[in-house]
Design a protein that fits this description.
heterotrimer, A alpha/beta (about 450), B mainly alpha (about 325), C mainly alpha (about 300), B: about 325 residues, globular, C: mainly alpha, two-stranded antiparallel ribbon, 2 strands
């Protein structure tokens, strides 16, 4: 994924009114057959929901073949007269800004699908989700955020995959009194000096998985690491995260061009470096290229990296080159807890593929929201915020809590890439860090 | 300019003003944001039109000036908010959130860059010129991505919208009106210049540089002047864009941006006064409405653009006016 | 820094250069003969990679995939030439830029529509996995070596084709005077389609080969496209020799810059800023090279036709 070049001009967004083209989908819900003329103020999207009971599976298929762009998942905004009991429930409108086209689309699709799975399972008529594609461009993300706040009047924003987009959107969104729940990006600025009472990170602070890799390298007995990352802020943070916990020597911190996909020059230097371990952070296509070339180069220094390059979505593209590589993650498919087992099964049943890290984060984000919604109305911001802080939901990661800067405190595991039948996947081989928070709690005034 | 074209221009300008204001009044403030975006991108394209439309200088690197203007605004505002000086030596220079100052700095920075780049690039012509302007923009892009001081790839947030005397720029209506006014000024300047001696010589140099030179006019300096003006106006648009998004990122310097600004002009009609505006309006409306139809909306956008090139020569304005004239 | 490491980096630069030549050759031919700027050349590269990955996965044979990559890209090139491109030859560069840019959108999203958003799997054949030890003790990946050999062979074939065959004579004649060769009874339409398909096929071949060591994903063609443009501009647009020399030059400059700059800056500043400034400059290096060449030779190194 080359942020700069993955698609030439492509901006989109959707000014549209939700009414105009939104496909509304009602989750199968007992007896939701209300005739729409009863509710004069119900939006057309909701009426569609009544008329067309798409199952979620059909939804994902439609989506897969690209018939529908925008999904307003309306779990019956129409309640009122027919279901007085449900009408008492709290309502919440969520705007999801995520990457659905271009090179980084697979991540956004996973976050969205994970999130939607939890929403469908909750079967709560009060939640409405509007999804839009940011094309991985900061200015488009800002534009969509404006639209969702001004036009769709959402209460909560979520969905952004990339740190630079999050930095563009989050500060002004939270200043306008909206909540933002991050399902993926966790730039250090938002954890530290720019932390805000309405910003919650449900994934990780960016440094976390790299820190865990450094901690693992100590326990694995490595004493001299060669580090590779792209020359951009997240890359520099990654290597700093690794160095924060790694006690051995650093053979070299090598910064590559962002979006580079040929690593011949770097591999030649690594081969000659005499290091006993190589840590790399190369998200997306860069990581695929690096892993394949590393395997072909015949270098036998052990590799380790964060989970991003070993995620379910791209592992198949890397192929056997990834087998046996150690990576760090706060989640894994085989993590042993009830919520996770149910999630993995439901995700597979719904979408016909194994869930990824990103899907798990989207799922947790939705469940956190739903847990807060059960306790407080979003219009009572203080109560809703307090409910979010409690984080009383069944995380697929097992234990989950927020630190004072509203970033997760969680265990980070060591995984190994293995082959299960035809499919490459990960299995947990150890614990890298227990109850890890982040390095920026002190910089946050909360 | 023919009477029908004048009518078309007037209609377009009125629509761009009226529609968002009415929508905002009706409780749909988002259209105002969208129109502000259209206005600002139009300014950038009007800037490029000085070089491309009048001088025939196909610059594929105008994102450089757009981005520089943006970064000028971002850096000044950022320093002002943090209370840090930008320079301590040789003289003390602080940040500011005062829009007119920011605009001056943006225009000056982009103009200076256009001067330096033009000095080297204008030695080449044709495809070489297209590619060398792209090369300089790419250099700035990679510099911005990897230079950590102002956020690198992460970009630089501008937390508060900069101020303009007598106006509340945080009010979307007022900010739209500022952008719209700047657009009108840029268009007026273009119109004035096109018919001035300078503009006539420039247009002539596009068709026959040899003949212009034989009249004792130095073509290189003529083109350089047009190029600097072009870059400066695009830089001003960049500063406004930073304020609209409250954010600056290297994306503003990327070749997508250069391509997009160029597409606006071709789509609307190269060399025409309102070509860039018509192109920006059409492109953004297409992108907005197609996005609703399909995840793969870019296929349709591509096909539509193809149709415009193949069947509507002279861009949108050309197509509309030709049909009207029969 | 050892001599072996340096020699290995030279090989790496050569490999990148040879790859770039496959891309640039088609681009420069199409410009030289038809006067067309084709921004969609990168899409043909992507089509080659996707066709190769698709067929290799379905049949289990990399070689069949490679062949399909070449064929698919050439076919796509021919179709696009007949339906769209040939209407653009007499247009100015602006129209060509917009039209071929529109083609990028269609190709990229069309590919995503057919193959999905996730990157595809494509690995080199068993035969070429692993490394060989070259004279002097350089341990080098077999597949990269194979790319160098294949690329040089294709380059030699192309020079032979252009220099020694009737088709080549017609192509060169077409660069000089298209009315004349049409008057001589050469079917100029078919000639143009052939040249375009040839360039597309080379791009597809490059895509298929590079796809097996990098990642096969939508948008993979665009970074390469920009590099290929840099190459043909440095070489002189329309000149195949120029494209060859410039490809090797850019390949070496890029590889050695990435390798040497951080070391160089490390000599007089602390390690962390040296790596970050060094790699920032390395990423700007080829554009700097292009700007310098154009300032001194506004028509590129070998440029005397076109533009």
């Amino acid at each position: 994924m080359e942020p700069a070049l993955d698609c030439f001009i492509c901006r989109n967004s959707t000014a549209g009114q939700p009414q105009s083209a939104a496909l509304a989908v009602a989750a199968p819900q007992g007896g939701l057959s209300i005739s729409h003329n009863v509710f004069p103020n119900v939006r057309i999207s909701a009426m569609l929901a009544v008329e067309r009971h798409f199952s979620a599976r059909l939804l994902s298929q439609l989506n897969g073949i690209g018939d529908m762009k925008k999904i307003a998942l309306v779990l019956a905004t129409i309640t009122g007269l027919a279901f007085p009991a449900i009408a008492a429930a709290n309502s919440l409108k969520v705007g999801m800004i995520t990457t659905l086209s271009g090179g980084g689309a697979s991540l956004g699709i996973d976050v969205r699908d994970g999130f939607m799975l939890a929403v469908m399972q909750a079967n709560d008529p009060g939640i409405e989700v509007v999804v839009d594609d940011d094309q991985r461009k900061p200015d488009i993300a800002v534009q969509i955020a404006d639209k969702m706040i001004q036009s769709d009047k959402v209460d909560v924003l979520t969905g952004i995959i990339w740190s630079n987009l999050a930095l563009a959107v989050v500060p002004s969104a939270v200043q306008q009194g909206k909540f933002y729940l991050s399902p993926n990006a966790g730039p250090s600025a938002l954890a530290g000096e720019l932390c805000h009472e309405n910003y919650f990170n449900v994934a990780w602070q960016n440094d976390n998985l790299h820190e865990a890799a450094g901690a693992y390298a100590n326990s694995a007995g490595y004493s001299n690491s060669y580090l590779v990352a792209p020359n951009y802020p997240a890359g520099i943070d990654a290597l700093n995260g690794y160095k924060r916990f790694f006690e051995g020597e650093i053979a070299n911190s090598h910064y590559t061009k962002l979006g580079q996909d040929d690593y011949a020059a770097e591999l030649a230097v690594i081969r000659a470096s005499g290091a006993d371990s190589v840590f790399f952070f190369l998200p997306g296509g860069m990581g695929i290229a690096f892993l394949k070339q590393y395997a072909q180069s015949g270098i036998d220094i052990p590799l380790l990296g964060p989970a991003f390059s070993f995620d379910q979505g791209i592992l198949q593209a890397v192929g056997d080159a990834a087998l046996g590589v150690i990576n760090t993650s706060q989640w894994s498919k085989d993590l042993d807890n009830e919520a996770n087992a149910a999630f993995v099964e439901a995700f597979q049943a719904e979408y016909g593929r194994l869930p990824s890290l990103y899907a798990s984060q989207g799922y947790d984000t939705a469940n956190l929201l739903i847990s807060a919604m059960a306790k407080a109305e979003v219009s009572d911001a203080d109560a809703f915020r307090a409910a979010l802080r409690e984080a009383e939901f069944d995380s697929v990661r097992g234990s989950f809590a927020f630190d004072t800067n509203q970033h997760p405190v969680q265990d980070i595991y060591v995984r190994e890439v293995v082959r299960e039948g035809e499919v490459l996947t990960n299995r947990i081989v150890g614990l890298a860090m227990e109850d890890r928070s982040n390095a920026y709690v002190g910089d946050c005034s909360m | 300019m023919s009477a029908p074209e004048r009518g078309f221009n007037f209609g377009l300008a009125s629509l761009l003003l009226a529609v968002p204001l009415i929508a905002a009044y009706m409780g749909e403030p988002y259209y105002l944001t969208l129109a502000t975006r259209i206005a600002i991108l139009s300014i950038a394209a009007v800037g490029l039109n000085f070089a491309l439309g009048l001088g025939g200088l196909v610059s594929f690197g105008h994102a450089a000036y757009f981005g520089l203007g943006g970064y000028a605004a971002g850096i000044l505002a950022n320093h002002a908010l943090k209370g840090q000086a930008i320079l301590d030596w040789p003289f003390e220079l602080g940040g500011t959130t005062f829009m007119p100052t920011i605009w001056l700095v943006a225009v000056f920075a982009a103009g200076l860059a256009a001067f330096l780049i033009g000095l080297l690039s204008l030695r080449t012509t044709g495809v070489y010129f297209i590619m060398i302007t792209l090369a300089f923009a790419q250099m700035l892009y990679y510099f911005a991505v990897s230079w950590p001081a102002y956020g690198g790839e992460d970009g630089l947030p501008v937390y508060v919208r900069n101020s303009f005397p007598g106006l509340n720029t945080l009010d979307p209506v007022q900010f739209f009106l500022i952008s719209y006014a700047v657009l009108l000024i840029a268009l007026a300047l273009f119109s004035l210049l096109r018919n001035s001696n300078f503009g006539v010589a420039l247009r002539a140099s596009r068709q026959n540089p040899g003949r212009v030179a034989s009249l004792g006019i130095e073509v290189f300096r003529l083109r350089l002047a047009a190029f600097v003006l072009s870059g400066a106006i695009t830089g001003l648009a960049g500063a406004l864009y930073a304020d609209l998004n409250r954010f600056v990122s290297p994306q503003m310097l990327s070749w997508h941006m250069s391509g997009e600004i160029m597409v606006f002009i071709i789509l609307g009609g190269a060399g025409r006064l309102f070509g860039p505006v018509a192109g920006a309006v059409l492109y953004i409306i297409l992108e907005q409405s197609l996005g609703e139809v399909s995840d793969y909306w870019q296929i349709f956008l591509g096909l539509l653009l193809l149709c415009v090139v193949l069947y509507a020569r002279g861009g949108l304005i050309g197509a509309v006016l030709d049909r009207r004239l029969g | 820094m050892s001599a072996i490491l340096f020699a290995e980096q030279i090989l790496n630069g050569l490999q990148l250069g040879v790859m770039l030549f496959l891309m640039a050759a088609g681009l420069t031919l199409v410009f030289g003969v038809m006067g067309l700027i084709n921004l969609a050349h990168g899409s043909l590269y992507m089509i080659g990679a996707f066709a190769c990955a698709g067929v290799a996965t379905a049949t289990g044979s990399f070689w069949l995939g490679l062949l399909s990559g070449l064929a698919a890209a050439a076919a796509a090139g021919a179709i696009v030439e007949i339906t769209v491109i040939r209407r653009l030859y007499r247009r100015d560069h602006l129209d060509q830029v917009l039209a071929t840019f529109a083609l990028i959108l269609v190709f990229s999203e069309g590919t995503r529509w057919i193959f999905g958003s996730f990157p595809l799997y494509l690995n080199p054949p068993e035969l070429l996995l692993g490394t060989v030890v070259l004279p002097g003790g350089i341990e080098y990946p077999k597949f990269r070596l194979a790319i160098i050999v294949a690329g040089l062979a294709v380059a030699a074939g192309l020079f032979w084709l252009i220099g020694r065959t009737t088709l080549g004579i017609r192509i060169r004649a077409g660069e000089c005077d298209r009315e004349m060769i049409a008057a001589l009874g050469v079917n100029i339409g078919i000639l143009y389609t052939l040249v375009f398909a040839l360039g597309a096929g080379l791009a597809g071949l490059a895509g298929a080969m590079v796809g097996s060591i990098q990642s096969v994903q939508v948008g993979m063609g665009e970074p390469v496209l920009i590099l290929a443009f840099v190459v043909i501009v440095i070489g002189g647009i329309g000149s195949v020799e120029g494209a060859f020399v410039a490809s090797i030059l850019v390949g070496l400059a890029d590889t050695l810059g990435r390798f040497l700059f951080p070391v160089l800056f490390g000599a007089f500043m602390d390690a962390s800023s040296a790596t970050s400034i060094g790699s920032a400059l390395a990423s700007m290096l080829i554009y700097l090279l292009m700007a310098v060449v154009l300032v001194f030779r506004p028509r590129g190194l070998f440029g005397n036709v076109g533009a």
